[in-house]
Amino acid sequence: MRRVCFTLQVKPDRLEEYRRRHAHVWPDMLRALRDAGWNDYTLFLRGDGLLVGTLLTEDLAAAQAAMDATEVSARWEAEMADFFINGRHLVVLDEVFNLEHQLGASQ
């Protein structure tokens, strides 16, 4: 399982509404994410709109494609499109440190 971290930028004037919408995500969207392989998926939002997401997945491209194939994701994306600066293009970050990996390698 691969740990993925990504960023997006939420428009500063939409932060409170973004928080409200994520407090009660549609049940069919939650199931679709789970079924598509988005495990342990978490979002963190900074006050200036920086959004950081993390998830565990076997294959990020496959998990994204599985979500893209769902009707609920198309509805969700259409409703959320205006919240983001530069669209919903995920900027995936490179992992540069992992405590468990280094501890395991040193034993």
TrEMBL record:
Species: Dactylosporangium sucinum
Alphabetized Gene3D superfamilies for the sequence: 3.30.70.100
One term of GO molecular function: racemase and epimerase activity, acting on carbohydrates and derivatives
InterPro entries (UniProt xref): Dimeric_a/b-barrel, Rham/fucose_mutarotase
Lineage, opening ranks: Bacteria, Bacillati, Actinomycetota, Actinomycetes, Micromonosporales
Segment forming the signal sequence: none
Entry coiled-coil feature ranges: none
Listed PANTHER family: L-RHAMNOSE MUTAROTASE
BP-aspect Gene Ontology terms: rhamnose catabolic process
Name of the featured protein: L-rhamnose mutarotase
